[in-house]
Amino acid sequence: MQKEVIDVIREKEQLPDSMTDSEIAEQYKGTYTAARAALSLEHKPLDQVLADTMAKVFPWMRKK
Fold first, then answer.
1. pTM above the 0.85 mark?
2. Domain residue spans of the chain
3. What is the pLDDT of residue 1?
């Protein structure tokens, strides 16, 4: 499991720093939580996607 995914799991699940990366990887390997953590690294949040799309359609609505 990638270090970035482990860091996201540690943050979202509020795991103690005393848990090693290998323990987290072993416990969360193949779980829904790990899949969501991996996806969160690759995808923008939905509101950011909507804001980007609206800015393309209505350029004057772009946040400044």
1. no
2. 3-61
3. 80
